[in-house]
Every structure is written in C-alpha cells, then in structure tokens.
Amino acid sequence: MRRGAPLLSLVVLLALPACTSQPEEPGDVALAVFLDNDVTVAQKGSVEQQLRSMPSVKEVSLETREQAYERQKADLKDQPDLLAALKPEYMPELLHATVTDASIAEAVELVMTEADGVEDVALRIADVDPRPSRIGVIVRLESSATDQQRAAVEKAVRALPTAKSIEFEDRDAAYERLRERCQGKGDLSTQLRPQMTHESWRFEMPLNGEGSGVGELMRLDGVDGVPLAPLAML
User: Fold this and answer.
1) How many helices (H) and strands (E) does the chain have?
2) How do residues 144-195 score in pLDDT, each as one tens digit?
3) Would you call 211 exposed, middle or buried from its count of C-beta atoms within 10 A (0-12, 13-18, 19+)?
4) Based on the number of CB atoms within 10 Å of its own CB, is 66 exposed (0-12), middle (13-18) or buried (19 or more)?
5) Whether the Cβ atoms of residue 112 and residue 54 lie closer than 8 Å to each other
6) Most buried of 47, 143, 183, 219, CB within 10 angstroms?
7) pLDDT tens digits, 58-107
8) ω before 130 within 30° of 0 (cis)?
9) Neighbours of 127 (CB within 10 A)
10) Cα 79 vs. chain centroid, distance in angstroms?
11) Burial class, 98, CB count within 10 angstroms (exposed 0-12 / middle 13-18 / buried 19+)
C-alpha cells in the first residue's frame, strides 16, 4: 500500500468546531478508495465492510477496472494522446462513497488510507445543486519536505490572488482538531492516529475561479497533495 500518494484529488477540509456543528456552507463529500492492483478478494471485502461501517458514509459502490476504463475513455475523448496511452490493466478498482458530514470526511479518508489492500483515497466536493460559492483548499506537505521547499510552498500560497483565511496547521493540531470533531462518531476517533495526519496550508477561495493557481501548487516539490473540499472540512 502506498501512503499519501499525491493523487489529483480536490477535496474540502477546514477547522470548524465539533462533529455536530453545522457547516457554514453545506456540501457532501465524494470519497474514492483506490484498491491495490493485487488486492485479494478477502481484502476487498474487508475494505468495503470497513467503509460501510464508517459514520456518515452512504452510497458505497464498487467500480471495476473495466468500468473505470470506460469512464476514463469518455473523460479523455478530447485528448487523443492521453487516450492512446490508456490501458484497462492500468486502471484500479475503486470503491465510491458519499460522506454526508463534511467535518469528519478528512478523518474517514485518513483511516481508510491505512486499510490493507488500499492504494490511496481521494476526496472531492460532491455534485450538488446549487454549487457552493466558495471551497476549501488543503495543501498537504510531504513529511520529508525541506525548509527550502516549505518556504516556496508558503510563498506560492500567500501569492494566490483569491485565497482568503490562510492558515498553517501542523500535524499535532490536525490530529487534535479531527479527534475533537469525531467525538460521538462511533470509534472513528480511536481509529485515527497522530501519524496519519499531515502538515498543511489551508484556505478558502471561490469555486471554479479562473487563474486560481491551484494547479501550480500541485506541482511544487514538497507537496503531497492538494484536496479541494467543502469549507466545513477546514
């Protein structure tokens, strides 16, 4: 299992009070669990059972390699070069789900990432109507990031023209925030461990804002991933 792989997963995270708090701007979170290519039947069943047992998780479904391949083909129909390189055997099986409490979606993601047979987990804002006007952005840092890389990431974040409420969160603060939010949410708080969390820069910005600069952040050295999520995740 690969821990913390930087998938292009745009999620929604931030720091609101506790699990029972109402988000400033509601929004379900779509969660995708990428299974290892060599996942066993037993592991797959265990991962699905664990996901279904998570608080505020609903609509769990499996997407096979063939289904994922057909979906990707449709998404890449206007990009022939990428489409030509797409092979069914490269596609992972996925479990899709919806987290209805955005404030604990990050905790669900981190716990599921540690499950045997899981390659990675990605979060994004679920398709809702109307769409929220603003989203949360989380720029996660690699644990091995150098001081120079950290400084470059901070400079890039603070230079974003539409970013607001920019804050840095270390791993201890992230763990305490998530642990507090998950009180009363079954045993989710006990499954969460400090080493699962990340240092991150967290801020809000307009949804689908042109020239946001988020794509550039994903390519910076020392960045582990940039989830886009509902404001309630921050």
Assistant:
1) 8, 9
2) 999 999 999 999 999 999 999 999 999 999 999 999 999 999 999 999 999 9
3) exposed
4) exposed
5) yes
6) 47
7) 999 999 988 888 887 787 777 777 777 777 777 889 999 999 999 999 99
8) yes
9) 10
10) 25
11) middle
